[in-house]
Design a protein that fits this description.
The complex is a heterodimer of chains A (about 300) and B (about 240).
Chain A lengths: L4 H23 L8 E8 L10 E4 L2 E11 L5 E8 L9 E6 L6 E6 L12 E6 L3 H33 L2 H27 L1 H24 L1 H40 L3 H8 L2 H22 L1 H5 L4 H4 L1
Parallel strand pairs in A: 1-7, 2-6, 5-7
Antiparallel strand pairs in A: 1-4, 2-3, 3-4, 5-6
Chain B lengths: L1 H19 L3 H15 L4 H22 L8 H41 L2 H7 L4 H39 L4 H10 L3 H27 L4 H31 L1
Helix pairs in contact in B: 1-6, 2-6, 3-4, 3-6, 4-6, 4-7, 4-8, 4-9, 6-8, 8-9
Classes of the chains: A alpha/beta (about 300), B mainly alpha (about 240).
């Protein structure tokens, strides 16, 4: 759209004017659209607050100071502009206090418990709270006197302490310090002398550690191998043990059978008959041999050499 | 001696302009043209100048005041106050000395060396009223408007920079800005811009109106116009601060 120069100028000026008014109200902390409520209070003095100072309720900003004026009776009348939604009970108290050491002053509303609310243009009680610095300024002399009295007492005490430490005591103390110094010097000399050895020991220790380290790293494969074969050996052992167990079990059963008298061996072990027979046979044989010895002819009677050969 | 002569010439030109400022019908059309060129067309660059001034001020103040004992709101107070008192007016004026001053000086210089001004005179036109008055008036009227733009965008840029860099939350910034907001600062800024607008346009008109010696002379007068405008803006800034604060 083609605009004539007049229209362009008009737009520029109008926009600038609107922006200026809005910005000005914004910076003055006058809500641009919201309703506000004005209440006023009186303080003994108005140090540190000015137009724009913050009004807090329990640390939350609810408005700002709009005017600060001296009244005829020598007090300071402060008008505050509050957010329209803040309700301030009648018996609330406005405290003029500082938020911190360096921060500026502000007004803190201590809300009361009354059911009656302050209307627009109403007034509440104001209390001026002395700040730390003011307190120091007003009572500084007192404090300074106290401090100076304390200091003079301290001085006296130190003097007395000095007197107590007469020459004798101080000489002893000097001696003691001298001894301590000597000991320290000797210790340091010893350390100096042994310095080389200590260093050697430390280096030896460190080289040993490093050797150990290399040993451990170099032989790692071998150690691994050993561990592997050990493992396989253990497995084999387990197998062997199982076989042994089986063998023992069958041996057991065999022994049980033997014990029970089963089979040849069982009978051999358990049956004494054979032993008796053998015994008898042996006795008989003995008798026979003895008989032959005593009288060989009796047995050889029927035998001739020729017949034999 | 030369400076005195220049001052005399300058004063006489201003006197003529003042005397012919009643001939509104002569320069009415030109005035609106100039108002658009000085004001409307300068808004974008002034917005840019404002935003960057504000954001740089914020970041640098935040960097300098990095201390546990200084509340963050101090940064807002410093930035908004410096913008309102000084930066919005002076930095914008220095930029406009280049933009507006150079244009005015070149226009008038070219008209002078191509003898258009003489032609106007011979046709019975009051050339001062036709050429100088609308330009100076446009400067006087539009510079305060541009001050508003620079200030608003400067403070806005400061808030934005504090917010996006995470150094100063907007609430702290505004708290400080409001705590130390004195309406007089704004008035002072307007006065400054009014004076600067007058200085830049009148010096440029003077340099262009009395240009001489062809294209080279126009170039020389344009350079002179810009440099002198800047110097006089800074001088006037000092004088105003000494007088009004």
């Amino acid at each position: 759209m083609k605009m004539s120069n007049e229209v362009k100028v008009g737009i520029t000026v109008l926009l600038a004017f609107i922006v200026a008014v809005v910005g000005f109200r914004f910076m003055r902390d006058v809500p641009i659209l919201r309703q506000t409520m004005e209440i006023s209070t009186h303080f003994e003095r108005g140090d540190g607050i000015s137009q724009g100072s913050i009004v807090n309720v329990r640390g939350v900003k609810v408005g700002s100071v709009s005017t600060v004026r001296l009244t005829d009776d020598g007090r300071v009348r402060v008008t505050m502009r509050l957010d329209g939604r803040t309700s301030v009970p009648e018996n609330s108290v406005a405290q003029l206090t500082s938020l911190g050491i360096v921060e500026g002053k502000s007004i803190v509303l201590q809300l009361g418990d009354s059911d009656e609310m302050v209307e627009h243009g109403g007034e509440i009680e104001g209390v001026y709270v002395e700040s730390m610095t003011e307190l120091l300024g007003n009572r500084g002399e007192e404090i300074a006197d106290d401090v100076s009295a304390s200091l003079s007492e301290l001085n006296l005490f130190l003097k007395q302490l000095n007197q107590t430490f007469d020459d004798d005591v101080s000489a002893q103390m000097g001696q003691a310090f001298g001894n301590a110094e000597q000991v320290t010097r000797q210790l340091s000399e010893i350390l100096d002398q042994k310095k080389g050895e200590i260093e050697q020991a430390i280096s030896a220790g460190s080289s040993m550690l490093s050797q150990l380290d290399t040993l451990a790293t170099d032989n790692r494969p071998k150690v691994d191998n050993i561990m592997d074969s050990l493992e396989s050996n253990i497995e084999e052992l387990a197998r062997v043990r199982e076989e042994m167990e089986r063998a023992t079990a069958s041996l057991n059963s065999i022994l049980e059978k033997i014990d029970g008298g089963e089979g040849t061996l069982g009978k051999l072990v358990n049956d004494s008959e054979m032993y008796d027979n053998l015994n008898e046979l042996t006795i008989e044989m003995n008798n026979l041999v003895r008989g032959i010895n005593e009288n060989p002819g009796r047995y050889l009677r029927h035998m001739s050499i020729i017949e034999i050969f | 001696m030369n400076a005195l002569k220049e001052l005399g010439n300058y004063s006489s030109l201003l006197y003529q302009a003042l005397r012919s400022s009643t001939e509104f019908s002569t320069y009415r059309k030109n005035l609106f043209q100039e108002l658009v060129k000085v004001g409307y067309d300068s808004v974008p660059i002034i917005v840019l100048v404002g935003i960057f001034t504000g954001s740089v001020m914020t970041l640098q103040s935040a960097y300098q005041l990095e201390s546990a004992f200084i509340p963050l709101s101090t940064i807002g107070a410093i930035v908004s106050e410096s913008i309102l008192i000084e930066l919005a007016a002076v930095i914008s004026s220095l930029v406009l000395a280049g933009k507006v001053g150079a244009r005015v000086a070149t226009e008038l210089g070219t008209m002078r060396v191509s003898e258009q001004i003489d032609a106007l005179e011979s046709m019975g036109f009051n050339s001062v009223s036709f050429l100088v008055v609308p330009r100076v008036l446009a400067g006087i009227l539009m510079f305060p408007v541009l001050y508003i733009v620079a200030a608003i965008f400067g403070i806005g840029g400061g808030i934005a920079a504090g917010y996006f860099s995470g150094t100063v939350p907007p609430s702290d910034f505004l708290q400080g800005a409001r705590m130390y907001f004195y309406p007089w600062n704004v008035v002072f800024g307007f006065v400054k811009m009014f004076v600067f607008g007058f200085i830049i346009t009148s010096v440029s008109c003077y340099k262009g109106y009395y240009a001489r010696g062809g294209a080279e002379g126009v170039g020389k007068s344009t350079t002179n116009a810009t440099v002198l405008s800047c110097i006089f803006v800074l001088l006037a800034d000092f004088v105003l601060a000494a007088l009004l604060l």
